[in-house]
Design goal:
mainly alpha, 13 helices, about 0% strand, elongated
Length: about 270
């Protein structure tokens, strides 16, 4: 590694540089929000130049990171995400690609890669996808079975909410979310007083049990991510210790060689 590249690598990895980039991302997010107001945009001519200034900072940062990391930059998922966001920011605001201008708001998502704690949460959520898919499939089967049962049991007395299977599925989804569920089930419970057993059981299983399963999977993934972070820290400390020990050993060897040279009789 050349001295220039080493200095650039130290710069982009430094905490001050990272905090500067985070500040620029926050400023850019504020500018994007202010640009949604046409009245403010007409009065404040500095918004557009400030927005482009933040884009220039992002481009320079990406260029420095590519120069410092070389091929490793393109093997890192977060780095590729940052590159994509910066490329989207360079899309012209007019012409055939003008509709893609809305993607500029993705620049705000750069906080996900800039803040370590956010990266940890996103990585943990990504790790939960297989478990979430299984739980989601379980939930779909539960809603489908409940939809068929409710259509057969309450379709005649409440066709508005349970007249057919699609309507029943939509009504049961609303019941599961707790959105005005009492008014949805009231016609069925008025006709069949024992119907509350079906709906209470459905709410308990779909909302509380399945929701807790989602939470349990997410918590487990976060714990696994924390354990991986601990192992990474331990590995970094051990690597630093090995570097220090090797440096001390080399220093001792040099001192021993120097002593031997000094002890050698001079002609």
């Amino acid at each position: 590694m050349t001295p220039t590249r080493a200095r650039v690598l130290a710069l982009v990895e430094s905490s001050r540089f990272q905090w500067f980039i985070i500040a620029v991302i926050v400023v850019n997010a504020v500018v994007l929000g202010l640009e949604t107001s046409p009245q403010l945009l007409r009065r404040e001519e500095w918004l557009a130049p400030l927005g482009w200034a933040t884009v220039v900072v992002f481009v320079v940062e990406i260029a420095l990171r590519i120069y410092a990391h070389r091929g490793a930059f393109f093997r890192d998922g977060w780095s590729l995400f940052d590159l994509f966001v910066v490329l989207v920011a360079l899309i012209p605001a007019s012409g055939a690609f003008g509709v893609l201008r809305v993607l500029r708001v993705l620049r705000v998502l750069r906080l996900l890669s800039a803040v370590r704690s956010m990266r940890r949460v996103v990585s943990a959520l990504a790790a939960t996808i297989p478990g979430m898919v299984s739980i989601g499939a379980l939930l779909v089967m539960l809603v489908y079975v409940a939809g068929v049962m409710s259509t057969q049991m309450f379709g005649r007395v409440d066709p508005e909410n349970f007249g057919d299977l699609p309507t029943s599925l939509l009504s049961l989804f609303q019941v599961m979310t707790g959105d005005d569920w009492a008014n949805i089930v009231r016609p069925a419970t008025d006709a069949y007083p024992a119907a509350w057993v079906f709906f209470i059981g459905y709410i308990l299983v779909s909302t509380y049990i399945v929701l807790n399963l989602f939470i349990a999977v997410a918590v487990e993934a976060l714990e696994m991510q924390k354990e991986e972070d601990r192992r990474e820290i331990v590995d970094e400390v051990e690597e630093s210790e090995r570097v220090v020990v090797d440096a001390v050993a080399e220093l001792r060897a040099e001192v021993a060689a120097l002593r031997a040279d000094l002890a050698r009789p001079r002609p």
